[in-house]
Records
---
Amino acid sequence: MGGGAIVSGSSFQVSPPSTFNLRLETGGILKIAFQGEPGAYSEQAVFDYFGEVESLPCESFDAVFEAVNAGRSEAALIPIENSLAGSIHQNYDLLLRNDLHIVGEYLLRVRHCLIALPGAQMADIKKAISHPQALGQCAGYLRKRGIIAEAVYDTAGSVKMLKESGAHDTAAIASRRAAELYGMQILEEGIEDNAENYTRFLAIQKEAVIPTGEAKTSIVFTLKNQPGSLFRAISAFALRDIDLTKIESRPLQGKPWDYLFYIDFIGSTDDEKTKRALDHLDEYAVTLRVLGSYTRFKG
C-alpha cells in the first residue's frame, strides 16, 4: 500500500501536508481528470467544484488514477458513493493501490433528463439507453411509460451514441449539459424516481493539503481476525467523541475472509484529538493508512 501514512506495529506517523491549493503556480489552467464522456455528471462536478479548469475525459477509473500519477492532470474528481445506489467499490480499491491523497469532497444533486433527437416526440420513444445505475434510478418512470431500458457504458456516452444512431424511437438518460453539448432535445427533466439523489465525489492529487474550516479525514486499516477487534478499533474514536460519518469494509485480496476497513470521520490530522485517536487505533491495527484530511463539503 503506497502513499499516505502506513502503519505496522507502533510506528504510526502522519506525513506533514503541503499547502498546495489546487492552483498552478504558473497561473495556468488546471487539468482535472474524470471518468466518462464530455457531458458526464462527473464532468459537471469537476466544473462545479474546481471552477475554470480544463477537464480530461478518461475511459475508466483506472485511467483517471493513471492520469494523475503520470502528471497528465494535476488532480481528479472521482465518485465514491451515491445516496441511492451505495458505494463505488472499485474506487475504494483504487484509493488503496495508488499513492494519491484525498484533498476535497463535493456533493452533486443528480437530475436525470430524458433526451431525444430534435423533432422526436414522447409518443415515439420505445427504448431508453444509459448507464445501468441511471436506468435503475429511473426504473419506475420507464416502467410506467412502457419504455424498455438498455444498458450502455456511460450516461453522456448514451447521448453521443443516440446522436450517431439517428434513432427517433430511442431516448438517452443523462444530464442537461450532455443534451446541450450534443445538440439534443430534452423531453422531460427530473425523471429520477427519488429526488434525494446525490453523488459524493472525492478530489485526489499527489500532494496532501491542510484543510480549512471543518475537516474530514479518510483512513483505511486492517485488524487481526479475533473477537472484539473492530469494537476496540472503533472505541478509539468513540472515547474522544469523534463523529464517524462512514464505515466501509472491503475484502483483503489474497487473504480470504479478512477485510480492509475504510472510515471517514470529522476532524483533521492536525487536531490533537485526532492524533490521539489514531495513535490509539494503531495499538490494534495491523496496518493503517491516512488517505487524506480535507475540508468538509457543505452545500
Note: The chain is about 25% helix and 30% strand.
---
Amino acid sequence: MACLGTFLALVALLGALAVFASSRAPQHGDRQAACRLLAQRFHGECSGTGWFDTPQVRFPYGAVQVTVETLVPSPHSLGRGAAVRVHLPWSGGAWRAEIRYPPWPSRATPLDGLQTLSPPADAWTIPCSVRGTDPRAVAELVTKVVQSHVEQLRTCPKVSPLCIQLDGGAMTITKVLPIQPGPQLIRFVETALELYDQALLTRTRGITFVEPRSAQVLEQVVCRICGEEIREGLVFCRRCKTPHHRECWQYAGRCSVFGCGETEFQTPQVAPRLPGDAAGSARQA
C-alpha cells in the first residue's frame, strides 16, 4: 500500500508539473520573443533564456547601460499580471522619490521616509501620487515636460499601474504590461528613455539658456555621447539645447537626446564684456 501511495503521489506531481508547464510555455516564449526584438532594436544582449529564468535585455544608451526585465508576476504592490521593469543609472543626489499610479490613498502611512507631497494648485497635472524626501528637488524634477512623459508611460499602450522610483543611484520604471512579441515592449522602452532624458535635463547644473541676445552661463558641462566634460569644441542642439562635443556630434550625426532627432547644432558665442566690468579689465591686465 505504501508503494501504491507513493506511486499515486508521483503521478499527481507529474500531472501538476505538466499543467504548469503547458500554461507557462506560451507566456515564457512570448517574453523571450519580445526581448529578442528589443535587443535587436537597441543593439543589446538578451539573457535569461532558461525555463525558470527571467528574460531580460541589456543595451548601451549613450554612456550608460540600460537593463529591461520582464516580470511574472508583477511586483505585489502594483497588482496582478505581468510587468516590465526598466533600470537606468541616476546621479541626481541622495534624495529619493516615487511617482505612482494609481495614487496612494491620502491616508496611506509614509514608507521609508517618503512623504506624500502636496503641490501648489495646478503644479502637477499627472493623476499620480508623488512622494519624496526632498520636496524642492522633487518639484524641480516633475516639470510639465516630465509630467507629459509620465502620462505617456501611464497610458502606453493602455492605462495600467505604474511606479517610477529614484533611489540608490538608479531610476526604476515598472509598469504592469502584458508581454507579447511585437512593437509594444519596444514602444514602452522608448517612452521610458524619453522620460529619462527629460529627467536628466532637470538635474543639469551650471547651464542656463535664456532668450536670444542674452548671456548663457556654461560651467562643467558633460557631453552625453562620450560622458566627458566639455572643455573645448562645445556645440549645442538647435532644438533642445543639449550640449555636445563637436566631434561627438559629428560622429553621431544628430542630438544624443532620445526622441529629439535634431541634426543641426549651434555654436555658443562669447558674451561681450560689459562696460565697467572691473573683473574683466583686471583679468585682461
Note: The longest strand covers residues 64-71.
